[in-house]
């Protein structure tokens, strides 16, 4: 709970993994008071916050959700909150007595955010899944990779966190804004397949206009063009090239030392792309990555070094803007975006399951806090 544009907003997060906690972390980074509801067993068995940075900036209360008393605690928390987030399979919270109807009956203004892979309805709604499967059915996975090769998995950033978490947050904040006008809450159904498909709107426009082929690695923004690709340097590292516009491409050629070559094919001469790619590859092998960085940064050539995650945290380009913060001997990304007046901040410390159970109950006016802890309905770590 800190400063930020969402200061004063209270969010209840029913604990899960991956995209749900990340969505809640985004809200916490923006200043919301995020109360994570962990399982009572997580507190009693001595679980730690560890290094799951998606649980930073929150408070945790550990509750036995299968007990009547524990369920009532969650409903009472919801009465005093603006948002509830859950990422279970469809129907789980309903069976717990914590579904939208149950919660909105106690707080009609609350926004109930739901995160799933396949959506609340549909043929696969009750099926298990993971990021790779979700992005596979949207067409996005098919489009990622080299020409002639198989699809390449882009970590789980595209589906889980871009198509999932970000869309849940956009939906929740939109519904929260509307509720301030209408006085009524609503349910936000954020499915990773929906969000991932929506992310590809720009490419679908290219397809419709005949500017994109439904094939991997043959288009200008998917490594098909030699001026939008990565190249190995003398030390086995890589530089990323994205010199799309003519003026930037000209600057790229100048800095790589090919601006005076009369035998270069035109930038958009696709028949000449294989030869052009080979010329670029040979040129980049002449120097190390850091030497090329000195050549290209800063410039309008649209070329940058490919950094590992460990390198990125300590690279001058990122330290200058405090893109990462160091907490407890570990680097983690700082809150984003940035705000001119309200600011953002994070302590960077992953919450301990049940670490603030007593404080949460007390802060929210539960006069039976000690009885709830003594009964086991709530666990204090």
Overview of the molecule:
There is one protein chain. By secondary structure, the chain is of the alpha/beta class. The chain has two domains: 10-199 and 325-379, Rossmann fold, CATH 3.40.50; 228-324, formyl-coa transferase, domain 3 (2-Layer Sandwich). The chain contains 16 helices and twelve strands. The strands form three sheets. It has a seven-stranded mixed beta sheet with strand order 6-5-4-1-2-3-12, sandwiched between helices. A three-stranded antiparallel beta sheet has the order 7-8-9, with helices on one face. A two-stranded antiparallel sheet has the order 10-11. The protein is elongated and about 85 Å long.
Strand and helix layout:
Layout: E1 10-14, H1 19-29, E2 33-39, H2 40-44, E3 59-63, H3 68-79, E4 83-86, H4 92-95, H5 100-106, E5 111-116, H6 131-136, H7 157-182, E6 186-191, H8 192-199, H9 201-208, E7 228-232, E8 238-242, H10 246-256, H11 273-284, H12 289-296, E9 303-305, H13 309-314, H14 316-319, E10 324-327, E11 330-333, H15 357-363, H16 369-375, E12 378-379
Parallel strand pairs: 1-2, 1-4, 2-3, 4-5, 5-6
Antiparallel strand pairs: 3-12, 7-8, 8-9, 10-11
């Amino acid at each position: 709970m800190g400063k930020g544009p969402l200061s004063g907003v209270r969010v209840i997060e029913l604990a899960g993994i991956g995209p749900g906690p990340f969505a809640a972390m985004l809200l916490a980074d923006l200043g919301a008071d995020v109360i994570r509801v962990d399982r009572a067993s997580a507190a009693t068995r001595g679980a730690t916050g560890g290094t799951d940075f998606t649980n930073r900036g929150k408070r945790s209360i550990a509750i036995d959700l299968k007990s009547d008393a524990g369920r009532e605690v969650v409903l009472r928390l919801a009465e005093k909150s603006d948002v509830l987030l859950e990422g279970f399979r469809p129907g789980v919270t309903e069976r717990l007595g914590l579904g939208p109807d149950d919660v909105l009956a106690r707080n009609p203004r609350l926004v109930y955010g739901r995160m799933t892979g396949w959506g609340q309805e549909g043929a696969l709604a009750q099926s298990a899944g993971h990021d790779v499967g979700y992005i596979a059915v949207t067409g996005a996975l098919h489009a990622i990779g080299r020409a002639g090769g198989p699809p390449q998995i882009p970590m789980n950033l595209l589906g889980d966190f871009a198509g999932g978490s970000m869309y849940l947050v956009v939906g929740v904040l939109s519904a929260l804004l509307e509720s301030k006008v209408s006085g009524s809450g609503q349910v936000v159904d954020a499915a990773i397949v929906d969000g991932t498909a929506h992310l590809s709107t720009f490419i679908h426009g290219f397809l419709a206009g005949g500017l994109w082929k439904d094939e991997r690695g043959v288009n200008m923004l998917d490594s098909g063009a030699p001026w939008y690709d990565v190249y190995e340097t003398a030390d086995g590292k890589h530089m990323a090239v994205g010199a799309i516009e003519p003026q930037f491409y000209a600057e790229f050629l100048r800095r790589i030392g090919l601006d005076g070559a009369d035998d270069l094919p035109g930038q958009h001469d696709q028949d000449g792309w294989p030869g052009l790619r080979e010329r670029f590859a040979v040129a980049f092998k002449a120097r190390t990555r850091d030497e090329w960085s000195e050549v290209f940064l800063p410039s309008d050539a649209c070329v940058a070094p490919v950094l590992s995650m460990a390198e990125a945290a300590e690279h001058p380009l990122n330290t200058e803007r405090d893109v990462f913060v160091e907490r407890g001997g570990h680097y983690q990304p700082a809150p984003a975006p940035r705000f001119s007046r309200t600011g953002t901040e994070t302590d960077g410390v992953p919450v301990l399951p049940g670490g603030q159970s007593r404080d949460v109950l007390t802060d929210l006016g539960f006069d039976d806090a000690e009885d709830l802890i003594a009964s086991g309905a709530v666990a204090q770590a």
